[in-house]
């Protein structure tokens, strides 16, 4: 359908928890197609609906050549730990080491209302947590240590 413009901080929609999708409508089908079209670009691992200005619980992903989506995702399980570089399309140009669980599993639905479970370790686990955070109104900078978060915010404002 369309490649959508990415919202960047401080856009307030990125800090607003997204609403659950209660009915699969033609508009929801278009949203999913737009999420898939927009995430299908090299270097993009995931994209939440609020990053394209829609306050609904949906995200798409593009991990190791697998492109897909999930509606109403909820994290069911997290295990282990990883600490590595993380970036975000809504926080352009910044990469910070971020602590996440190594493994994550989310449960949601597809466009037919059928249960979908996504799980993975490493980059897949990181993406599942990152995108679910977006849908809860959080960005990855919220997970940084206080001094790193301050440095990141200064960098975003163009300060030294």
TrEMBL record:
Record-listed E.C. numbers: 3.5.1.88
Known cofactor(s): Fe(2+)
Catalytic activity: N-terminal N-formyl-L-methionyl-[peptide] + H2O = N-terminal L-methionyl-[peptide] + formate
Active site: 131
Residues at which Fe cation binds: 88, 130, 134
Molecular function GO labels: peptide deformylase activity
Cofactor mode of binding and number, as noted: Binds 1 Fe(2+) ion.
Pfam families (alphabetical): Pep_deformylase (PF01327)
InterPro entries named among the record's database cross-references: Peptide_deformylase, Peptide_deformylase_sf
Keywords: Hydrolase, Iron, Metal-binding, Protein biosynthesis
Family, as annotated: Belongs to the polypeptide deformylase family.
Function: Removes the formyl group from the N-terminal Met of newly synthesized proteins. Requires at least a dipeptide for an efficient rate of reaction. N-terminal L-methionine is a prerequisite for activity but the enzyme has broad specificity at other positions.
Protein name per the record: Peptide deformylase
Species, as recorded: Bifidobacterium thermacidophilum
Lineage, top ranks: Bacteria, Bacillati, Actinomycetota, Actinomycetes, Bifidobacteriales
